[in-house]
Task: structure prediction
Amino acid sequence: MQDREDDLMSSAGESTGRGIEVGDSREATVGGIRVRRALPRRARRTVGAWCFADHMGPVSVTSEDGLNVGPHPHMGLQTVTWLIEGEALHRDSLGSQQLIAPGQLNLMTAGEGVSHAEESTRSYEGALEGIQLWIAQPEDTRHGPPAFEHHPDLPKLAISQCVMTVLIGDFNGISSPARHDTDLVGVDLALRSRIEVPLTPKFEHALIVLEGAIRVDETTLVPGKFGYLGANRDALVIESLEPSRAIMLGGEPFESPILMWWNFVGRTREEIDEAHRSWQSDDGRFGSVASDLARIETGPPYWNGF
Result:
């Protein structure tokens, strides 16, 4: 998804031990859809390499009026799109055209540069809800070529009345087929009871509730709340107060500070300026997308007087 972000410097996460740090997601509108932005936040920029999280919907869409985000660029990151209800269409400058439905994962790696659009399917009508996540790429891959992959089936683990889908990384001995450039994990939790979830102690973890209500460390989390769990935990007890859906993110604290502006993740202002000039001049770095939607433009970064 596309939206302007402030100049965000993030440092490696700090271990908070026991307890949970709770914050409010920020309301925004992207492509005509209401989102709750859990990451980045002023108090918590990243969780491992996870640097952006937009909970989209739930919203009712028609075949013509739904998610409509025109072609826009990315660099230095991976976009992870996961729907729990509805359908959307992905198009990118690699020539990919991929319908995404619940239970399927779209993963686009930007590297040095890619562009894409996120569109209504022109056929689906009904509820639309999901989450888009960004992963900051490490130094050894962020200048590499762009790529796209679609995973129609992901591994699941059922415990009691709960089903856990491994989106990315390794969880409790189960590995997702999706690419990951740093040591991290993303898990969809469909919760119907109290459950103990195994964790990797060296990871910092966070929870984003999409539906329902859960209790962790005597703290209740509902949609619109972001729960940061810190590191040094080998397990987490989650109590589902009603049928609930949550995303658990985890990862090793990221290798270096990042600079994030608009749709770009870099390390310096000069890198961001160069990427912005390339997009504005359409010099070929980000390719082109076969979309009927208008190409998205933006002014220069604020440090250039915008």
About this structure: Confidence is low (pLDDT under 50) at residues 2-17. The longest strand covers residues 50-61. DSSP finds one helix and 26 strands in the chain. Residues 9-258 form a domain with the Jelly Rolls fold (CATH 2.60.120.10).
